[in-house]
Recover the amino acids of this structure.
């Protein structure tokens, strides 16, 4: 198949549902060949493709379900803008909800779990509101532009993209966007919790309240949480961009996971991580529970480190397996 034909067919079929692409591609290839003379030259191919017209318009003719609030010529850029703007605005609304929610609830005597649940509900509501507002305004702008007869620059064969490599296990866009939003939420929530000491409290016997972290360690944790959240956001953004597991993404994900594990284990070995009250409480608890003599602060650290190492190994192994599986699967 001529390279220009391949690029044209790819540009048309990539806009269609996956189940329709194969049949449409074969039909379109046969139609283009019928338009060409025997032993066609490059100019013959260009003339045939130019006659067929812009791929996004032709794809709309093949689509089984029409979509017309936004004109066919503008639908693809509309979706691209919406996919970027909606998560960004949702993340901004989450941060604002965390900040305003913390101020309004600072003096309310809620139990800690109830406060977290309420802030999570407020952040979820804010994320939905932000995404809906973004969708409304983006849709309005594109709808008005379409009604006013906005026209992009004339399409030419030179605008045809090169086919992307379709190998690799697909990464669901919905799970990636959800990960981006949850990363913003939990990073902001944990930072706020660290800034307010009463969030990290343990209730001992007789309703005795014990701080979990020492004041110095609690404040020293904040930069690490922000860096980890930023890196997690970046990895999720790469997943959203590539949309399939590949070797570069696998390497980046493994490096991030190893970095996250190393930093976490390093933090767990801070000698002043837990408060003196917490260490005394666990030592007392170990003395009372003769059947479990190793429940100490160091024991808790070791247990967490083992669990985190196992989780990191599973994450790296899973991503490596998906990458290997995708590389062996024909495009």
């Amino acid at each position: 198949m001529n390279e220009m034909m391949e690029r044209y067919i790819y540009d048309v079929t990539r806009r269609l549902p996956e189940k329709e692409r194969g049949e449409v591609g074969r039909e379109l290839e046969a139609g283009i060949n019928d338009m060409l003379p025997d032993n066609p030259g490059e100019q013959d191919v260009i003339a045939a493709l130019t006659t067929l017209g812009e791929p996004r318009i032709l794809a709309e003719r093949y689509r089984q379900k029409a979509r017309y609030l936004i004109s066919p010529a503008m639908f693809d850029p509309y979706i691209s803008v919406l996919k970027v703007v909606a998560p960004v605005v949702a993340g901004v609304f989450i941060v604002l909800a965390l900040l305003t929610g913390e101020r309004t609830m600072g003096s309310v005597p809620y139990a800690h779990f109830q406060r977290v649940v309420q802030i999570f509900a407020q952040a979820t509501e804010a994320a939905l509101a932000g995404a809906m507002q973004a969708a409304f305004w983006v849709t309005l702008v594109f709808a008005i532009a379409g009604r006013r007869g906005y026209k992009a620059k004339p399409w030419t064969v030179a605008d045809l993209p090169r086919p992307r490599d379709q190998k690799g296990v697909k990464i669901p866009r919905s799970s990636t966007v959800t990960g981006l939003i949850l990363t913003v939420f939990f990073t902001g929530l944990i930072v706020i919790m660290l800034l307010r000491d009463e969030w990290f409290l343990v209730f001992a016997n007789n309703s005795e309240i014990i701080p979990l972290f020492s004041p110095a360690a609690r404040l020293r944790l904040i930069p690490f949480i922000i860096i980890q959240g930023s890196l997690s956001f970046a990895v999720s953004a790469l997943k959203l961009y590539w949309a399939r597991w590949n070797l570069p993404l696998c390497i980046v994900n493994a490096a991030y996971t190893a970095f996250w594990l190393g930093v976490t284990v390093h933090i767990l070995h801070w000698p002043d991580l837990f408060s003196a009250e917490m260490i005394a409480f666990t030592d007392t608890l170990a003395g009372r529970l003769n059947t479990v003599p190793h429940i100490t602060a160091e024991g808790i650290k070791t247990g967490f480190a083992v669990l985190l190492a196992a989780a990191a190994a599973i994450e790296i192994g899973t991503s490596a397996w998906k990458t290997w599986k995708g590389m062996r699967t024909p495009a």
Observations:
- The CA atoms of residues 168 and 245 lie 5 Å apart.
